[in-house]
Amino acid sequence: MNYTEYQQYMKIFFEQYYFKLSQDEHGIMLPLDETEKEMWSDDADQKKEWKKWKLVSAAINEKEIEDLEKEIAVKLPFSLRAFLTVYHHYFESPIGRNSLFEHFEAIKMRGIRYLLNTDIYPLHGTKRAIIFDAFG
Description:
Number of helices: 5
Structural class: mainly alpha
Oligomer: single chain
Distance between the termini: 5 Å
Shape: globular
Radius of gyration: 15 Å
C-alpha cells in the first residue's frame, strides 16, 4: 500500500471504531475541560464533567513527524504516519490517544517499541498477523 492508501484505510478504521464505541455512549466519554473544547462532540453537555469526544481532522505536519522520528531515532512506516496524521482522537489502549493538544501521546506514553510490537502497527518480515499488511 502507498501512503495515501494507508491514510484512507486509517480514516475508515477510526470512523468504524468510533461508531462501534459510540453505540454505548460511555465508550466515547471522558472528563474533558474547557481547554479541550475542540475535541468535544457537538452534542456534549457543557455542564457535565464527562463529555463525549469526537474525531477531529489531524493538524500534524510533516516537520512534526520528522522531529518525532529524530527524537525516537526510528523512521516511521507509512501506516504509523497515517495513524498519526488522519485524526486526533481519545481512543484508549491498545490504540492509544493522539489528541489535538498533545500530539503523539500514544507514542510518548507507551514508547515506539511497544507500539510497533502490537497488532495495530506493521512489522514487515514478522510472523505476526498485522492488520495493515493484510491488505497490501
